């Protein structure tokens, strides 16, 4: 326990703040998905083949790939966005490791959406399905992409049939 506290103390101040926010959001998402599942909204649902406005994320026509585009000519803007997105991804990963309950992919995607909304970062949440390798069991998965990188639900999106894509209010 002391080793975990020392590791937390060594984090950068901004990452400490985001990690604490991610921890609080993991409590919130666990509660809301357990007792009030119908009130949890990922954002505005878009069609997989819809054209998105110019921004840091573009979806390929089949909804399976994501391409990065330049969003601003302001020097340092993309580096700051990339840095903040990395901090959000790392904070969600850290909080998922150390909480005593299960923090599944849809909870992490919801946490990422809330953090991206708070920091005004555009993000997309993908919900996909695939058949299991050994059985005919269908597996569902959720992942979040922001700043041109996957921040939650690390997977190979090509393995999944994308059923829904959601964007936050900054997309």
What secondary-structure arrangement, pairings included, does this model have?
Elements: H1 2-9, H2 13-35, E1 44-46, E2 57-59, E3 66-68, H3 77-98, H4 105-118, E4 123-131, E5 138-146, E6 149-152, E7 161-167
Antiparallel strand pairs: 1-7, 2-3, 4-5, 4-7, 5-6
Helix pairs in contact: 2-3, 2-4, 3-4
Main beta sheet:
5 strands, antiparallel
How much β-strand is present in the residues? 15-25%
H/E element sequence: HHEEEHHEEEE
Structural class: alpha+beta
Model regions low in confidence, pLDDT < 50 over at least 5 residues? 53-75
Helix content: 25-40%
Number of helical regions:
4
- Radius of gyration, in angstroms, nearest whole number: 16 Å
User: What number is the mean pLDDT?
Assistant: 80
């Amino acid at each position: 326990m002391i080793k975990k506290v020392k590791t937390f103390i060594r984090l950068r101040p901004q990452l400490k703040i985001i990690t604490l926010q991610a921890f609080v959001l993991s409590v919130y998402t666990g509660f809301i998905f357990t007792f009030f599942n119908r009130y949890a909204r990922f954002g505005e649902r878009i069609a997989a083949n819809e054209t998105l406005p110019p921004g840091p994320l573009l979806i390929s026509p089949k909804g399976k790939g994501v391409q990065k585009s330049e969003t601003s000519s302001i020097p340092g803007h993309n580096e700051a966005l990339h840095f903040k997105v990395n901090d959000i991804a790392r904070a969600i990963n850290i909080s998922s490791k150390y909480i005593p309950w299960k923090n599944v992919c849809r909870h992490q995607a919801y946490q990422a959406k809330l953090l991206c909304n708070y920091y005004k970062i555009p993000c997309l949440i993908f919900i996909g399905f695939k058949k299991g390798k050994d059985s005919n069991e269908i597996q569902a998965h959720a992942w979040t992409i922001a700043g041109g990188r996957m921040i939650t639900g690390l997977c190979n999106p090509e393995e999944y049939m994308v059923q829904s894509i959601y964007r936050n209010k900054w997309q």
